[in-house]
Design brief:
Elements lengths: L2 H25 L11 E4 L7 E3 L7 E4 L3 H21 L2 H16 L14 E2 L17 E3 L7 H19 L4 E6 L2 H12 L4 E7 L7 H6 L8 H11 L9 H17 L2 H29 L3 H4 L4 H11 L6 H25 L3 E8 L20 H4 L4 E2 L8 H6 L12 E2 L9 E5 L8 H12 L14 E5 L4 E4 L6 H7 L3 H30 L1
Parallel strand pairs: 1-5, 1-6, 6-7, 7-8, 8-11, 11-12
Antiparallel strand pairs: 2-3, 2-4, 9-10, 12-13
Helix pairs in contact: 2-3, 3-9, 4-5, 5-12, 7-8, 7-9, 8-17, 16-17
Length: 521
Amino acid sequence: MTTICKKCCSLFLCAVLLCCAFVPAFASDGRCDCGFSPIIYVGPLGCTPIVRDAGTDGEQALWKIDAGFLLSNLKDAMPKLTRAILTRDAQLLADALVQFVCASFGDLALDSDGNSKENVTTPELNVPQEERHGIDCDYYFDYDFRLDPCAHADRLHAFIEQVKTLTGHDSVKLKCSSMGGVVLSAYLNKYGHDGIDVIICRCCPLWGTAVAGEAFCGKLELNPTAITRYGEDAIPFLDTGFADDFIEGSLYALLDVLKGAGLIDGICALGDRIIRSVGDKVFREALIPIFGTLPGIWAFVPESYFADAVQFMGLPAQGGLHDKVFAYRHAMANIAANLQSAREDGVKVCIICGYNVQRTPLVTLWRSTSDGTVDTKYASLGATCGDVKEPLDESYLNAMRERTYLSPDRMIDASTCALADCTWFVRDWLHCNGNAGIDKLFELVMTSGEVSVRAFTAFPQFLEADDDRDTVYPVTGAPDAAQRLKERPSYLNWIRYLFSFLKRFWQSLPRLFQSAQRLHG
Ligand SMILES: [Zn+2]
């Protein structure tokens, strides 16, 4: 190294040391003046594992459940299952299913006070330790999804205070994903919005989700159209590791051919028959005693289902579990007003939800438009929506006076939302799927002075997710397979176009036939 270089280096080092010497000066009163308050990420369901007999030889992950454990439980139930199928004995089939469900999920159940079994625990939950904060990092708040959301709110409160002390900021930003919105609802209802400057709700079941409502009322239905569409909508998100596009396109074609050939209808009819003959016992002896004891899952039941669900699930009329389930109802009932009041006090609020994805195909309400998991009307706090893949009713559209909040594809009217000016909708966005375009919107929300659906030109109220290019575009009109193929040529999009063309052709056949008859007549 030359002398000049050495001198440069030592000068540089001195400069660095001097700067470092000033850092404590900035922080001497414990304040940080970086201008960006820390982000706390309130995670989704399953943000932390749940384990049985942690630290012993028999340690077993109960959530997320591993395939090996499921397979071994299936193996145990196999003799019964085989006999049931061979002898067409519905009672025996129900027994086998109950055995399998209880062995796999039974230990997740809570007691009548809503507390976990002692040997079923989560590993150490996160405690904020780092001072480092900024747009590129967050503090991850995790929790046991089964437990009382109001108890999570207490922990979140302590967590927020700790982050504030650590970083020297008076406020934090809350970014909530999916079930994180349940924790947020409980938090705002108990602690208000003091010390929070940004709230982001990403695909949150703020008013619940119909899957939970219907399941807790015992309303199950296997609908062939719903199953086919569910598969079609999931296919673009497959990551096969090689020849993605070809495999996705081929699966799409296969699914549509199976549906066309009536095979999926046949499977569903069989499935429905099985559900009718074994459902009652499986509900009574497995699903209700397990999932009916989880206040966390009760928090997903929309208000319109709640009274029926209490009856169907046989929720005890008093006791700890009852109190925990009912305490959250207030939080859910008040979430819209709590967010509104936060916004009035200057908190920047961004609610964002998906639409036009076929929802879980197990429930009678399969037409409700959603992100695949959470209904758009519940995640958006009140949007008026057309059925999935359909525009709003012609009569509804004709009666509309104000169209500022109508989506260009006429599928969503956001004017009925509790916070219409800060609620975004993303077409074809699968529940909580990572998308760099949406992350860009979050950055704007966190750094801009004003947050509203009219504040950012690239992010109007209605967006469309493009998973392949990892971005979003403004919605300009109804979904159009030909347009999509032109803009994003791929084998999958070609197959989609082909089948949409065939479907249209098939649907127009009766009309063609009638015209031909008229001509001849
Ligand atoms: Zn700072």
